[in-house]
Known about the structure:
Elements: E1 5-6, E2 13-14, H1 25-32, E3 66-76, E4 79-85, E5 97-100, E6 103-111, E7 114-119, H2 121-126, E8 137-142, E9 161-171, E10 174-180, H3 185-189, E11 199-202, E12 205-208, E13 216-221, H4 223-228, E14 239-244, H5 246-254
Antiparallel strand pairs: 1-2, 3-4, 3-8, 4-7, 5-6, 5-8, 6-7, 9-10, 9-14, 10-13, 11-12, 11-14
Amino acid sequence: MPHLYFPYSYPPFPYFSFPFAPPFLPKVLKVFKVSKAPQVPKVLKDPILLNLINPQNLMFSGIVEDAAVVTALRKEGENLHITLRCSFTGELKIDQSVAHNGVCLTVVDIKNDTYTVTAIRETLDRSNLGLLEVGSMVNVERSMMMNGRLDGHIVQGHVDQTARCTEVREADGSHYFHFEYETSDEMRRRGYITVDKGSVTVNGVSLTVCTPTDHSFEVAIIPYTLTHTNFCQIKVGSIVNLEFDIIGKYIARLATI
């Protein structure tokens, strides 16, 4: 039996070598007419789409490992060096990727029980990391292993924008958080949207969307998530990071080509 290839990654790689072949992939293969030999269809020569199913993009799952504590902040030009303490500091190494409130950052220094990452101006403008203070809690997750379970959903660690919490209410032990975010026709064309029962990443946490509108949504937080992430510190007016579902963003992009 000849190998089937994904022609959208560079270099192309065999379909049967994909580590956990999601159920939607056969339909994707059919729609894009995957061939028996590596080739790139004209519609996918757009550089934004060339990484459509590139395994290097499967960075995180949105399952937070710990709520790290900020121990120091240092400005250097437009960059911000953030030093934190967490339960797995001793397992980290220099150059390792760790998501901080959903933002993928590189470990640049490790000293005793703390480590340091650096956020550049673009990251600070697009996320809530510029609002951190010493003592702030930050949701952290190491990049996922390709042979592990995807317990959340595909999270890249590339925050799209921020949102503001406008309501928090308790419901039989759980909590509902309502968030609103800026939107426009262009942002919707980019896939910056939520759908009912779809996935969204809030401060690095993989969550299921409830009651979405064109500029807002709700999420239900169970007691475990509330106590083991920085959702325990989110209140009305708090700013959180959003990463919309990458599959939805690619579909939105394809619809414009």
